[in-house]
Amino acid sequence: MKLYVNEVSSATARVRIALALKGLKVEEERVTIFGDDAASRKPEYRALNPQGLVPALLTDNGWLITQSLAIIDYLDQIVPEPPLLPSEPEQRAFARSVALAIAAEIHALLPPRIGTRLRSFPGVGPEEVASWNRHWVSEGLSAVEALIARRRTGRFTVGDRPSIADIVLFPQTVGATRVGLDVAQWPNIAEIAGHCRAIPAFAENAPASFR
């Protein structure tokens, strides 16, 4: 398998963490994502992945799987142990809902292409984009903190085993620090991130700003 990656990307970190938890090794190809000459914008990469995003996984059967959560689901199916989703239906749904609250509601507003578009409007510069990022990360993680506080009973988001919720949450805490936010304001999230950081699969595959 071949994984197209960028070391700063939190979405890439999610897949790398999942691979490490599964004990899987893949070939990696770096794709630059910043600037007008980024490889992600070029026809060669768009021919492979029309979205121009990372990560993307090329399977041994020649299928290209895009979107980190879809890739993680695929990995969980081809290598069932250790499972990345709880077995109990409500807990399983909760883990997915936390992962989606981050991937779809926070991260989707932060990629480089969003900042590039914002800066194209009059009066919007780097400071305004930074404020935009802090706002959506803060609002999103505050909601996730409230959700987790209602249900958390173990060391991680759902119980005492890392799940897809933690795989998505941990890189986002790195992103929160990157934009200047103190994760300690969200005590459950901060504690979970600390437990994740103690696991090599998480610490060694975090976005570049943590490593």
Shape: globular
Which ranges are low-confidence, i.e. pLDDT below 50, for 5 or more consecutive residues? Answer: none
Integer count of domains: 2
- How far is it from the N-terminal to the C-terminal residue, by CA? 25 Å
Instruction: State the CATH topology of the largest domain.
Output: Glutathione S-transferase Yfyf (Class Pi), Chain A, domain 2
**What is the CATH-assigned architecture of the largest domain?**
Up-down Bundle
Total number of beta strands: 4
Order of strands, main sheet, comes to 2-1-3-4
Estimate the strand proportion. 5-15%
Question: What topology does this entry show?
Answer:
Blueprint: E1 2-5, H1 10-22, E2 27-30, H2 43-48, E3 56-58, E4 64-66, H3 68-78, H4 89-103, H5 112-119, H6 126-151, H7 164-178, H8 187-197, H9 200-203
Helix pairs in contact: 1-3, 1-7, 4-7, 7-8
Can you give me a brief rundown of this structure?
With 211 residues, the protein is α+β, with helices and mostly antiparallel strands. Helices cover 52% and strands 7% of the residues. The protein is built from nine helices and four strands.
